Amino acid sequence: MTAMAKQVEDFLNASAPFDSLDKEQKQQLIKHTELIYLTADNVDQVLKDKVALFLIQSGQFSVKDSDAPIQHLSEGDYFGYANLIEKRNFPLSITVDSPGLVYCFDARAVEPLLEIPTIRHFFDGLSNNSLQSHAIADSNSMWLYKGLLEVIEKAPVSVEAQTSITVAAQLMTSQKVSSLLVTEHEKLIGIITDRDLRSRVVAASLDTHLPISQIMTANPAQIMGNRTLFDALALMTEKNIHHLPVIDHQTLVPLGMVTASDIIRHQRGNVLFIIGELSKAENLYELTRLSWQLPHYFSAHAKKAGDYDIAGKILSQATDIMTRKLIGFFQQANGKAPMMFAWLVYGSQAREDQTMGSDQDNGLLLAKTPTEVQAEYFSNMAEYVCNGLAKCGIKLCDGNIMASNPKLRLSLDEALEEAKQWVKAPTKDAIMHFNIFLDVRCAAGDVGLFKQLQKQRAPLMQQNMFLAALTRHSNEISVPLSMFQKFVYEKGRKEKDVIDLKTRAVALINNIARIYALADGVTLPNTLARLEALSARSQLSKRDATNLSDIWLFLNRLRWRHQLENKVTDNRVSISSLSSIEKHQLKAAFKAIERTNQAMVMKFSGGVS
C-alpha cells in the first residue's frame, strides 16, 4: 500500500459512515480517491466538471452544492452528496476561506455504497438536515435485557458421560453448584441437578458407581450466549425448569449455566424493585439506605441507549416517592397539615429528566395565606423534607429554589399575583429568575389546588409580550458551533475539548418546547411530551418536533453515558470521547437546534433578539 493510500485509509477509519465499511469496500473506495489541496487560486480549475463526494480534512470553505443556503464547512464535513443522492447536476460553488486538504471520492465508487442502508441513511440525514439517530423504545426493566454473558459468573462445571454418579456428586459439592453439564467431545449432551440425585439416585437406591449418563436429562433445553436474560427467563418459564445451560452460538461449546437463583438475584437489583421498596420504607433511615442504591443500580445496569432514555424518568419517579414518604413521616410525628397544600417540583424533576447531578427544586402552594402557627408548621415540614431529600442523595439547591425558602411557600392568591408580575415586567433578570418555575408539576398533596393555579395563570402566560421576552432570553444562548461548523469548547476548563451539553444544547430544546407549549396552552412539563402534544396551530411542524425529540434523546444519552462511565455529575462531555458518527450527529443536532430557535425568534418576537 502506498503512503497516500495508507493516509486515505487512516482518515476513512476515523470518518463516519465509511468507518463501518469492511476492508474490501474501503480498498475499492481508496482506489477511486484523490487528495487535493484547495486554494482560492486553484479551486475553480481543480473542481471543474468533477462529479464526486468531497470530505474536508483541513481548511474552511463556503459551499453551495444544492438548492439549500450556502454552508460554511470545515474538518470532517462532506459536500457534493446532494447531487449523488438526487442524481442531478447542480453546479458546485466554493469560496476558499482558508486553504486546506479535501478528499475527492469518485461518484462511480460512491454510488454502489449508497445502496448500503447505513451509508444511505447517513447521507439522507445530512441532505435533510436531520439527526442520523432513532429513538429507542422505553424499557422499564433494564435488567431483563442484559446479555447472558454479563450474567454468567462461573465457568461451566461439566463432566464426561462415563463419569460415575459418586464422582459427579463430589464435584458438585466441591464446586458448590446445584447442577452439572454432561459433555461429549466438548459438546453438551445432558444435564443433572441436585434434584436428580435425590429423586433418581437416593430415592431409587441406585448404584452410585453407574455412569452419570444413566440419570442425566438428555438433550436438555439450552440457550445461546448471545441472547438476553429475558430470553432465558421466558424459556425457563415455558419449560418449567430451574437450570438452563448457555452455549456458544458458533462453537456450541457450553459457556455456563443460568439458574433460577441468578434470575432472582438480578431481579432484586432491578430498579423497579428498589422503587417498590422505597414505597415500603417506614422511616428516614430505611428511605436513605434504599435511595443510595439507585446510583449503584444505574452504574451497574444502564449500558444501552434505551436505558439512558428512561433513566431520568426513573430518578424523578424515585424522588417523587421520597418526597411523599418524607411528608408522611413528618405528618406522623406532627399531625396533619392545617390546610390543603400542594408540594410543587420544578426544573428537571418536573420534566422527569433528572441526572446524577440534579439538585432539588421545589416549593409549597397553600390553599390560603397561613396564620403564624400554620406558617410555622409548613416551615418545619419544608425544612424536614428538603433536608431529608439531601440525605437521600438529592442535593440542596445552590440557588435556594426550595420550599424551605419562605419566598417559595405561597398561597394560591399570592402565586397568581406573582405570575401577574412576571408577565407585567418580564425583564432580563426576572426571566432568568422565574424561567425554572415554568416547568412545574405537583408531586404530593392536593393536585386540585395545583390545577387551579395552572388554569388561572394559563391566559397570562400566553400574552405576546411575555412570550417575546422568553424568546429573546432563549436566543441569548448560542449552540457551540463556529461559523465554519467547528465545535466551540468551554473556556477556562482543565479539559480542552469539552462542551456542556446541558447548558449549551439541552436547555435550548427545553426552552423551545416550553415556549411553544405555553403559546399552545399545553400544560405538560415534560419536554418530549410537550413536543408530542403541540397542535397544528402551534406552527412547529410535526417533522421539526420529532427531530427535536430525537435530538433531545441523543443528547441525553451522551450526558448519562458521560456521567456513568466517568463517575461524575457534570454534563461536560469530551468531544474526543465520541465516535466519528456521534460527532456528525452532534453537529447536525446543534445546527437543527439553531434553525428551530431562529424560527421561534421570528414567530414570537418578530425577529428581534
Automatic annotation (TrEMBL):
Residues 152-208, 216-273 form the CBS domain. GO terms for molecular function: [protein-PII] uridylyltransferase activity. It comes from the Bacteria. Keywords: CBS domain, Repeat. CDD domains: CAP_ED, CBS_pair_CAP-ED_NT_Pol-beta-like_DUF294_assoc, NT_GlnE_GlnD_like. Residues 53-96 form the Cyclic nucleotide-binding domain. Signal peptide: none annotated. This is Putative signal-transduction protein containing cAMP-binding and CBS domains. It comes from Alteromonas macleodii (Pseudoalteromonas macleodii).
